[in-house]
Amino acid sequence: MRAVFFGTPDLAVPSLDAVAGRHELVALVCQPDKPQGRSSRPVPPPAKVWAESHGVAVMQPAALNDGRFESWLREQRPAVCPLVAYGRILKQPILDVPAHGFINMHPSMLPGYRGPSPIQTAILDGKTRTGVTIMRLDAGMDSGDIILQKEIEIRPDDTTLSLSQRLGEIGAALLVEALGQIEQGRATFTLQDHARATVTRMYGKQDGRIRWELPARRIHNLVRAAIPWPVAHCLYNGEVCRVHKTEPVDEPAAAAPGTVTRVEKGRVVVATGEGQLAILAFQAPGKKPMAMADYLRGHAIEPGERFEDMV
Questions:
Q1: Is the peptide bond before 230 cis (omega within 30 degrees of 0)?
Q2: pLDDT by residue (tens digit) across 149-181?
Q3: How many CB atoms lie within 10 A of CB 207?
Q4: CA distance linking residue 280 with residue 226, whole number of Å
Q5: Closest Cα partner for 79 from 198, 183, 160?
Q6: What confidence tens digit (pLDDT) does each residue in 284-302 have?
Q7: Are 174 and 105 in contact (CB under 8 A)?
Q8: Domains in the chain, please, with CATH?
Q9: Going by DSSP bridges, is the β-strand pair 2-7/24-29 parallel, antiparallel, or unpaired?
Q10: H-type helices in 87-185, by residue range?
């Protein structure tokens, strides 16, 4: 089928590659380049990098609803528009352009975890299962009819990065399967149970702040959810430090939240609001991330010292 793909981040790239291998991919639509780093130099999103390296035309509209983008899309004559994490809401006139509609790969088992941060939120909530849904997009928030779903395990050591990579690969295969069913007229579309829907919010930098009064398990899940961004952070000696890997310790909190209770080879154990938490990988201010064992070789952390919440 003739396709225009909508997608922006790393999560979209496996699906973009899979669609290009099975269908006539005429263009990619993605978010505009965004400034990054100290230089604020615009950086292209991962989907654009893939498209340009494979000779696929790229469209990055700043405005979607002024009529010009809709006209451009009609000129491409897509039979279908696969979509993965494009990042912007599409209104009905655009959704009506392709004959087979917009087919979305969403990284959750809908109707659970609709919205912009299903992977981070599932990890934050301590879930042990998640999955991928292929659905036909409508004007609501991930509320369209379901075509295919596949459930997978969330591993105990999964981060947003590792889980996104697995879901991206699984979702790509499932998306191509759904597109094949649509092309052959075999696809079935199942209404979602909207009464069971849950909705996530936009995940932001502030969600990486560690609050030591929370239970150790909750902080551990926060650390996992915040990899690769914004990375869990707090204050140590009055400066911002980042925590990259932790492990809950099944012991009562023996001191005020944030207090170092003991230092062992390869880990620093800290009291929380409920239980204790071992820090296994650490990033000091202005330094690169490192295993706590490596950090402790050159820097002393003593029992009684405090990790503080951000003000």
A1: yes
A2: 999 999 999 999 999 999 999 999 999 999 999
A3: 18
A4: 15
A5: 183
A6: 988 999 999 999 998 999 9
A7: yes
A8: 2-196 (3.40.50.170), 208-308 (3.10.25.10)
A9: parallel
A10: 92-95, 118-124, 160-183
